[in-house]
């Protein structure tokens, strides 16, 4: 739906992102696999175990139609994901780094093949809750969300072992583009007159400009035009870390330039592109 803006097709990028991840992991020594990451309580081995879980979960659910773990009584989606993610990571601590690398090499092309069968405009297998909770997501947004997951976890490993990130614009720009689709959801509690606009600018080689407009009683993605009622600008490193809570909202605001409607700029700088 146009609520989310034009489609982003990240499918050709999965093999390149995965190759960079596998090359990185193959070069790590035992001490580096044990380095702590920004994910609380998880070291590099744990983050890789989580990425492996993502592959298995999507193939099991989206390809094979297997429901998997069930919700506990009164369990919210964030609580369910936190629990099941932690359960898999704990179990994966029994796996050697080499085996996890081999499993990712084996499963990655199968996930690529699954995405290749999808009509990007069809309903998603899994809705993207950080983009909307009342409108079904299109498949391209679901697939894009998975690409951002893999890219971000690779950056977290790279940060942990002090290896520069895969920030080439053609690999990073789609991540920022998909994250920006969370802007209307970030503004959702702020009612404004029809036509009110908020602009988001991300600076850097992979950056861009996006806008949300108040239209038909809700916020929607729109091409950035004219003078906005609220504007937020930040660099690309700040934006992806804000969207995944690698930094705090306050830290992101300190690194940003804002103008116009203060409530809207405050909301825009709480944009979150993970389930929390």
Report on this structure.
There is one protein chain. α3 packs parallel to α5 (97-116). A hairpin with a 2-residue loop joins β2 and β3. This protein folds into 2 domains: 2-164, Up-down Bundle (Four Helix Bundle (Hemerythrin (Met), subunit A)); 183-268, 2-Layer Sandwich (Nonspecific Lipid-transfer Protein, Chain A), CATH 3.30.1050.10. The protein is α+β, with helices and mostly antiparallel strands and 276 residues long. Helix content is 48%, strand content 11%. The protein contains 11 helices and 5 strands. A 5-stranded mixed β-sheet has the order 3-2-1-4-5. The protein has helices at residues 14-26, 30-33, 44-63, 77-92, 97-116, 139-161, 169-180, 183-186, 236-243, 249-254, 262-268, and strands at residues 197-203, 208-215, 218-222, 230-235, 257-260.
């Amino acid at each position: 739906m146009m609520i989310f803006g034009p489609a982003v097709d990240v499918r050709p990028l999965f093999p390149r992102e995965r190759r960079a991840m596998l090359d990185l992991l193959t070069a790590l020594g035992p001490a580096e696999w044990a380095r702590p990451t920004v994910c609380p309580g998880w070291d590099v081995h744990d983050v890789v175990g989580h990425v492996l879980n993502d592959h298995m979960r999507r193939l099991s659910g989206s390809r094979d139609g297997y429901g998997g773990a069930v919700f506990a009584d009164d369990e919210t989606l964030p609580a369910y994901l936190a629990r099941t993610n932690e359960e898999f990571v704990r179990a994966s601590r029994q796996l050697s780094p080499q085996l996890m690398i081999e499993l990712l090499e084996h499963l990655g092309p199968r996930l690529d093949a699954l995405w290749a069968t999808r009509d990007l405009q069809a309903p998603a297998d899994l809705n993207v809750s950080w983009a909307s909770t009342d409108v079904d997501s299109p498949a391209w947004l679901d697939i894009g969300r998975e690409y951002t997951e893999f890219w971000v976890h690779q950056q977290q490993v790279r940060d942990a072992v002090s290896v520069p990130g895969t920030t080439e614009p053609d690999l990073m720009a789609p991540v920022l583009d998909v994250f920006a689709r969370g802007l209307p959801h970030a503004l959702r509690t702020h009612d404004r007159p029809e036509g009110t606009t908020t602009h988001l600018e991300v600076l850097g080689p992979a950056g861009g400009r996006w806008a949300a407009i108040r239209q038909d009683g809700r916020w929607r993605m729109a091409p950035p035009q004219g003078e906005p009622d609220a504007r937020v600008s930040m660099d690309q490193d700040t934006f992806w870390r804000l969207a995944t809570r690698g930094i705090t909202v306050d830290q992101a605001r300190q690194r940003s330039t804002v103008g116009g409607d203060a409530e809207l700029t405050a909301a825009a700088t709480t944009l979150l592109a993970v389930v929390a």
